[in-house]
Amino acid sequence: MTEENPGFEEKPDVPSGANSDDAEQPQAASSSPEEQAAPAGDTSQNAGLVAQLDQVRTALNERTADLQRLQAEYQNYRRRVERDRAAVKEIAVANLLTELLPVLDDIGRAREHGELVGGFKSVAESLETTVAKMGLQQFGKEGEPFDPTVHEALMHSYAPDVTETTCVAILQPGYRIGERTIRPARVAVAEPQPGAQTVKPAEESKDTGDAKNPEQPADDKENGGPEEG
Questions:
Q1: Which region, left, alpha or beta, applies to residue 187 given φ > 0 means left and ψ of -120 to 50 means alpha?
Q2: Mean pLDDT of the region 55-70
Q3: For residue 35, is pLDDT > 80?
Q4: Rounded Cα–Cα distance for residues 43 and 46 (Å)
Q5: How far apart are CA 141 and CA 108, in angstroms?
Q6: Quick check: 157 and 122 in contact, CB under 8 A?
Q7: How far apart, in whole angstroms, are the C-alpha atoms of residue 173 and residue 186?
Q8: What is the rounded CA–CA span in Å between residue 144 and residue 164?
């Protein structure tokens, strides 16, 4: 019978120069196959995230382009509405002031005849101030050249003292709002006298000759006049 030594355990033989930890490393490495396959799974997951990010960026660019297009359309719509609103306002003001032109004509005639006095004068001046604030401008003066775009000739005559067709009398003043004429000035015009341009040079030459003739006897007297014996 063999005697067993209590307190002593048999250990496997370990090569000399090797540690017990080195012996356990192969077992630890071979015991975790899932950890070796983990890098491949992370790569596929990252590729999926990159694809999703590209889709999100594409969708964001499309939505940004749609927003910019809608903003441009809204700005164009807003400008068009403001332009139409201004045009409607100008037409409404022009129609209102057109109805008031006969009243302004009566006020002008009353002023010319000295009848614009008292309370009537105050009302007339208030009305003229109000229509001026609304943009109404009066035009048409005597002596200005005739312009068929803003003048309406009701009377015609000839005058020797004009060199072009001229407004010699304002029968009714014209009115405009900005660049828009709501009523042309009704005027009497005068044109140059027919033949006045051809007669005038002849008269000038005649006057020049007459001015030289009086000097001729004086020259004759000085140069070749008879001497007193």
A1: beta
A2: 92
A3: no
A4: 5
A5: 14
A6: no
A7: 6
A8: 10
Per-residue exposure over 41-64, b if at least 16 CB sit within 10 Å of its own CB, e if not = eeeeeeeeeeeeeeeeeeeeeeee
User: Sign of torsion, CA 11 14 16 21?
Assistant: negative
- Identify the CA nearest to 173 among candidates 117, 218, 109, 217: 109
Which residues, 6+ apart, have CB-to-CB distance to 137 below 8 Å? 175, 176, 177
Is the predicted pLDDT of residue 215 greater than 90, yes or no? no
Asked whether the whole model's pTM tops 0.85, one would answer no
Q: What does the CA dihedral 141, 147, 152, 158 come to, rounded to 10 degrees?
A: 80
Residue where the block lists tokens 């105050």: 122
Residues in the chain, overall count: 229
Q: Give me 15's structure tokens.
A: 């090569």
